[in-house]
Amino acid sequence: MQALHDDTPERRVSPSGLSRPECAVPRELLDQRRPAGARAAPAASGTILASVALIMNASEIRITFPGGKRVEADLGSRVIKTDQSPAHGGDGSAPEPYDLFLASIGACAGAYVLGFCQARGIRTTDISIAERLFFDDAQTRLEHVELEIAIPDDFPEKYRTSLLRAVEGCKVKRTLASPPEISVKTTSIAPSRGSQIASN
User: β-pairing, 62-67 with 79-82?
Assistant: First the structure.
C-alpha cells in the first residue's frame, strides 16, 4: 500500500501494479555514429532526451477483442474482462467499461481507507463507502461524485479528519482532478493468417 500523504514522492510503478517497461529506446536515438571529435548538435540532443523521457514514462496496456461484445485489457500481471449488457448486445458476462471506471473511484478510495485503518490497527468490518453518482438532466454527463464513508461510533475521534485527508490521496480522484491528454491514432500491421482466410 502506498503512503497516504500527498507529499510522498511518486513511485516508479503505475496503479494496479502495472510496471513500467524497460527503456526500449530506439537504437538510432542512442547509437548515433559520428566522426571522432565531432560535436552533437544541441537541438538533436534535446530531442533525444525528450524521446527518452517519453519512453521511460510510458506504460502499455494491451486491449484485445476475444469475441462477441467482450473487450479485454491485459495489464501483464492480470487481465481485466469487460462485456456489454444484453440490452447493448452483449452477454453481460462482465461489467461494462464505464461501470468499471465508475467503480474504480469508490474502490480506490476504499483502498486508501483500508490502508489507513490497517496501519493504525482499526477494524474495518463495519466500515463501508457509499458512492453516489449525479448526472445531468439528459443522464449523459457525470457532473458530481459523492463518497460517504460510514464509520462506527467507536471509530477513534482523533483519526476522523485524518481519514478524509488520506482519501484525498486516491490516485483515481487525483487523475480526474488533473486529467491527462488522451490521443488516438492508427498503425498498420500485417494481417494474421486467420484473418486472411476469413476474408477470402
Answer: unpaired
Q: Is residue 77 part of a domain?
A: no
Report the run of H or E that residue 189 belongs to, with start and end: none
24 domain-assigned: no
Residue 168: inside a domain: yes
Dihedral of the CA atoms 58, 61, 62, 65 (nearest 10)? -140
- pTM for this one? 0.67
pLDDT confidence of residue 46: 54
Domain extent, residue 154, equals 96-179
Q: What is the C-alpha R_g of the chain?
A: 23
3-state SS assignment for residue 125: coil
Q: Is residue 5 part of a domain?
A: no
Asked if pLDDT for residue 19 goes beyond 80, the answer is no
Strand-pair partners of 172? none
Count of the separate structural domains present in the chain? 1
Spatial separation of the C-alpha atoms in residues 45 and 165, rounded to whole Å: 43
